[in-house]
Write a structure and sequence with these properties.
The protein is mostly beta strands. It contains two helices and 15 strands. The termini are far apart.
């Protein structure tokens, strides 16, 4: 009989991945990055860098999925890990507020009726930083997403659509829809904070995007996801790491 023994760091990462949002925290893997002391903490796993130009929002996340169809680049921890590359415990409302601090103003989410209207808003650049063989690696987050039909990497910027508020029928209180987990999506959801300004279906038979497996670090890897408004005149093609 063969017994598989996993390193403690891998076990801790898998426990972190499986933990439900709002539930008790399992053993947290050792931090790969320490936040810059000049960054302003906004909440768990979330910082604002007001000194950079453009201003930046930094989200701490972990790789939770790296092979198969995608609906999300980033989801809320304990929600959509089966279809999102990254998960974070940063509160969705504070992510929205942090984007406002960068100077970005939300546009509007996707609409499907009476006719389709794609999500719109200011373009947001997303970069990822992680440790690889002891060194810091960086990449445009779009290089981790692949078009399943063309086999090319994503070349469209995410936009700050801003999600929606709805009234909970039971409590009659307003609910920020992104609290359900749709933070940064590659399939169109009205609840997404950031979405792609193109037609992108979440239907299983016609999903557009898959994880670009060979470019994504192992499950459990800690990542800094850096968000900043893209200057309107800047045309930047993503480059593979």
């Amino acid at each position: 009989m063969c017994t598989l023994i996993l390193p403690a760091t891998i076990l801790a990462a898998l426990a972190w991945q499986a933990a439900p949002a709002g539930g008790p925290d399992p053993a947290e893997p050792p931090a790969a990055f320490q936040p810059d002391p000049a960054w302003k903490p906004l909440g768990p796993s979330l910082w604002f860098d007001g000194r950079s130009n453009p201003k930046r929002l930094i989200v701490r996340a972990r790789v939770v999925f790296r092979e198969g169809p995608l609906e999300h680049l980033l989801c809320l921890r304990g929600t959509k890990e089966h279809e999102a590359i990254l998960a974070t415990d940063a509160p969705p409302t504070l992510i929205h507020a942090g984007l406002l601090l960068t100077g970005a103003e939300p546009g509007g989410p996707v609409r499907f009726k009476p006719e389709f209207r794609p999500p719109h808003g200011p373009r947001i650049a997303l970069d990822v930083r992680w440790r690889r063989d002891g060194e810091i690696a960086e990449a445009d987050a779009r290089t981790w997403v692949q078009d399943e039909k063309t086999r090319k990497q994503l070349d469209v910027d995410w936009v700050f659509a801003g999600s929606i508020l709805y009234e909970d029928p039971a409590t009659k209180k307003s609910v920020y829809a992104a609290e359900e987990g749709d933070l940064i999506t590659v399939a169109n959801f009205a609840s997404a904070i950031l979405d792609l300004p193109i037609v992108s279906s979440a239907d299983d038979a016609s999903r557009n995007f898959v994880a670009y497996t060979e470019r994504i670090p192992p499950v459990g890897t800690e990542v800094q996801l850096i968000l900043s408004p893209r200057p309107e005149k800047e045309a930047k093609d993503p480059k593979a790491p």
